[in-house]
Specification:
By secondary structure, the protein is α+β, with helices and mostly antiparallel strands. Helices cover 38% and strands 20% of the residues. It has two domains: 2-112, no CATH class; 129-214, Immunoglobulins (Immunoglobulin-like). It has helices at 2-11, 14-29, 45-63, 67-94, 101-104, 108-112; strands at residues 129-134, 141-146, 153-159, 170-175, 181-183, 191-200, 203-204, 211-214. Helix 3 runs antiparallel to helix 4. This is Fibronectin type-III domain-containing protein.
Length: 216
């Protein structure tokens, strides 16, 4: 990714950069998609979540015209950019031995700008089969997948729109297990469709069936 990533992320608006890096935050606070040692200079886990949430909060304040918040947001943006540039540069280096890593690490948007998508392969005997149910916590769901084996992780997508329109789907989360995919912060009261695909070292499986339910 290198210089191309730096150019892309620095040219994005504040609103767009928040949307584009959120999958990276999700991937690195729910686990370690690299599945190996992480260099100490990378910001991951709770510090990454805290930094991301603080920048979002300041941005919301700046959008109301608060001049103090505008100044703070502008000061926060360069180090905010650098955190994600560092992560994506390291992911690119590690991806030389694991071509699925950019997808597990939430870097799919940036990766698609420079590389062909992963080939679709058989992961297990069948196309993944997804079931989803609401949890007691507001906006939280539990997903489970059957029909796959030898997957290293599972990418989940969602849409509040028409699930038959491919452009409506967006990244939601990366899960390390097929049996307990807990996802939070969905919009309660909305119809939400979800689907998953398995990520293996050789490529990705086809997308599962989609499941639509009202988020409680």
């Amino acid at each position: 990714m290198g210089a191309n990533t730096t150019t892309m992320i620095t040219r994005m608006s504040h609103s767009e950069v928040i949307v584009r890096v959120e999958p990276i935050v999700d991937a690195f606070i729910t686990g370690n998609p690299i599945q190996g040692s992480i260099p100490s200079f990378l910001v991951v886990g709770e510090p990454l979540k805290s930094m991301f949430e603080h920048f979002k909060e300041v941005h919301r304040g700046a959008e109301t015209g608060n001049h103090t918040m505008v100044a703070e947001r502008n000061a926060l943006r360069p180090p905010f950019n650098q955190v994600f540039i560092d992560i994506m540069d390291f992911v690119e280096l590690a991806a030389r031995k694991d071509s699925t890593l950019p997808y597990r690490a939430g870097c799919e948007y940036f990766w698609h700008k420079k590389a062909a998508p992963l080939r679709t392969v058989a992961v297990g005997k069948n196309i993944p089969r997804l079931t989803v149910s609401n949890l007691n916590e507001r906006g939280a769901i539990l997903g489970k997948v059957t029909g796959v084996s030898k997957a290293r992780s599972f990418e989940m997508q969602y849409t509040y729109g028409d699930p038959t329109v491919e452009a409506n789907w967006g990244h939601l989360a990366v899960h390390p297990t097929a049996s307990k995919m807990v996802t939070k912060n969905l919009e309660a009261g909305k119809n939400c469709s979800l689907r998953v695909r398995a990520v293996a070292t050789t490529g990705v499986s086809p997308w599962s069936n989609y499941v639509t339910l009202i988020i409680t």
